[in-house]
Design brief:
The complex is a heterodimer of chains A (255) and B (241). By secondary structure, chain A is mainly alpha-helical. Helices cover 80% and strands 0% of the residues of chain A. The relative contact order of chain A is 0.12. By secondary structure, chain B is an all-alpha fold. Chain B is built from ten helices and no strands. Classes of the chains: A mainly alpha (255), B mainly alpha (241).
């Protein structure tokens, strides 16, 4: 266990090294001024490194094995059909029989997003910059609802086998219309929240769900249909964050 | 000091509570199975808790200040060229070594080989994966450059983003079908847990140090560019191959 933690720590260092090199290089060659509070910043970087190593190793130990197993079991034919399933019966499965899969997609999309460290970072910054108008939890919950809806719709797409780009193009159309009406202040933040949702915690579990589903549903190819869930998870938070701002603005307006 | 740490630990616990509840409910009530390796799961959860707490501390002490101080330093220096070179280096450098991207690129090479797009030799697959990684890294570098230029010039974000979406839609019509899913996903994997706070702090710092820019309206948006351009560039890569 100590060995694995060390390995994760080394991997995190490899991840940070290019960033550190670029910063140090530009700081010393182009800006040519020492970094302010160097010791504090250095300590902060160390905290980030050690913290991420523990975080990733902990996910690897606690969450990913059980979460991935759960995704496989929930998408397994035995679970969806009961015990007496045959390949003939599988073909007759209607999309509505995957109810627990949808419930899992919804719940796991929401809960992993709340735990996502990069979203937390953006929410903290947005709270600070907006002078407290945007709440840390308000933003995170809005994003998490978006991811939850996105992943659920994504599983529906895999089950029904409808083409990915229809959904994505329709989603973009909604985003464009919302952009015209949403408060101007929220727009860049809403666009950003699409990109931050899908990192450390969400991606492995969602990928396991997509692959499990694509190999269970007859007529789906895991290699081709397993992709695409992440795209849903990055598109729908944009919609939900703008909706959150629109609803708040509408609420605040005197009747 | 200890009190602050404990409070922060409590905050991290609330962040993780939803996952614990969801996993617990599905395991016990829906699948009706006991929780396996309880000890390992408890240790792992403790690691996650400590890790998240340390990360948040480090964020406020290291990543946010360095991003902002770089932005201020470049704004003071007044050289747009160096700022843009830095922006490109940051986008390219942080993406090319990103483990999630390496995983997706290898997966994509496998898909391409199975779909007879490239030869099924190891050499062809390695080349394809490397080409894809460089394409994505280049597109993120390009995205940060455009995003920084936007902050400096004060262009409204929505025209650029909507233009980008239209680009994605047009490319989707012409790109080979097997690359589309990968292209859409590659937009999501580019922004890592360390890049996001750094780039956000850079954008907000730039917008606060340039007169006439509002950090809320102009400071955010860099991440959005970084998740958009890879889709277009990866589809182009699929068309050229």
């Amino acid at each position: 266990m100590g060995h694995e933690l060390l390995q994760t720590f080394l991997a995190t260092i490899t991840d940070v090294l290019p960033i550190a090199l670029i910063i140090v290089g530009f700081q010393s060659l182009v800006i040519r001024r020492p970094i302010a509070n160097l010791r504090r910043v250095g300590l902060g970087f160390l905290y980030v490194l050690v913290g991420l190593a523990f975080f990733l190793q902990g996910l690897e130990m606690a969450l990913f094995p059980i979460g991935k197993l759960m995704a496989q079991q929930l998408t397994a034919p035995e679970f969806i059909m009961g015990l007496q399933q045959t390949s003939e019966a599988m073909k007759e499965l209607d999309w509505s029989q995957y109810l627990w899969v949808y419930a899992f997609a919804l719940a796991i999309g929401f809960s992993t997003t709340i735990a996502e460290p990069s979203l937390l970072a953006v929410a903290l910054k947005a709270h600070q910059v907006s002078g407290g108008v945007i709440g840390v939890w308000g933003l995170r919950i809005a994003v998490a609802i978006g991811v939850a809806i996105g992943i659920t719709l994504g599983t529906y797409r895999i089950i029904t086998g409808t083409p990915l780009h229809w959904y994505i193009i329709a989603g973009y159309a909604i985003v464009i219309v919302q952009t015209l009406f949403a408060p101007r202040m929220i727009i860049p933040l809403a666009y950003d929240s699409g990109g931050v949702t899908t990192s450390t915690v969400t991606v492995p579990l969602v990928a396991a769900l997509g692959l499990g589903l694509a190999s269970t549903v007859p007529g789906r190819n895991p290699v081709f249909d397993g992709f695409g869930l992440i795209a849903f998870a990055s598109l729908f938070p944009i919609i939900s964050v703008m909706a959150y701002a629109q609803i708040s603005a509408w609420w605040a307006k005197p009747q | 000091m200890l009190k602050v740490f404990l409070k922060s630990l409590q905050g991290s616990f609330y962040d993780l509570l939803p996952i614990i509840l969801v996993i617990g409910f599905f395991q016990l009530a829906v699948l009706q199975q006991p929780i396996p390796n309880l000890l390992e799961i408890l240790t792992g959860s403790f690691f996650v808790l400590i890790g998240l707490t340390l990360f948040v501390q480090g964020l406020e002490m290291g990543l946010f200040p360095i991003g902002e101080s770089l932005a201020f330093a470049f704004a003071k220096k007044g050289s747009l060229t160096w700022l843009l070179i830095f922006a490109f280096a940051l986008g390219f450098g942080t993406t090319v070594a990103e483990p999630a991207l390496i995983a997706v690129a290898n997966e994509a090479a496998k898909v391409a080989a199975e779909g007879n797009v490239i030869d099924t030799t190891d050499q062809a697959r390695t080349d394809y994966a490397l080409g894809l990684r460089l394409t994505v890294a280049f597109s993120v570098g390009f995205a940060i450059v455009i995003g920084v230029l936007r902050i400096v010039r004060g262009w409204p974000v929505q025209y650029l983003i909507i233009g980008g979406y239209l680009g994605v839609i047009v490319m989707t019509l012409f790109a080979p079908p097997e690359i589309i899913g990968i292209a859409y996903d590659s937009g999501g994997v580019t922004t890592s847990t360390i890049t996001v706070p750094l780039v956000t702090a850079l954008g907000v710092g730039l917008a606060s140090s340039i007169r006439g820019r509002n950090p809320m309206v102009d400071g955010f948006g860099l991440i959005a560019f970084a998740s958009l351009t890879p889709m277009i560039f990866v589809m182009a890569y699929g068309m050229i191959r």
